Each structure stands twice: as C-alpha cells, then as structure tokens.
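Contributing new records

If you add data, match the layout below exactly. Sequence lines come first and carry their own label; structure lines follow with theirs. Keep one chain per record. Anything else will be rejected by the validation script.
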Amino acid sequence: MKNLLVLAIAIASVAATLAPSPASADVAVRGYYRDNGTYVQPHTRTNPDGDCTNNYSGCR
C-alpha cells in the first residue's frame, strides 16, 4: 500500500511539472483583414509577456 502511495505522488508530481504554464501558452489569433485589403489567416503566436527568450522569434 505504501508503494502505491509513493507511485501516485510521483505520477502527480511529474504531471504537474509537465503541464503547460499559462505564462508560456500560445495565443490563438483570429483571421483579419489588413488596411490594404489582404486577409491574414488565423494562426497561433506566443503569449506577449515581454520576455524575448521564450518566444518563437527569439531576441532581436
């Protein structure tokens, strides 16, 4: 029984560390029309949090 409890705690701790945090989650962007009439397809981007080290484009 003690082994089962240790296993359950281990699985719960691994699951908690692998869960995506809200700070690094992607944001869905809806499609929209630009001022010049072109349509931008819906896409995803990283959450704009001000930290360039965790974004797709990196630091510039």
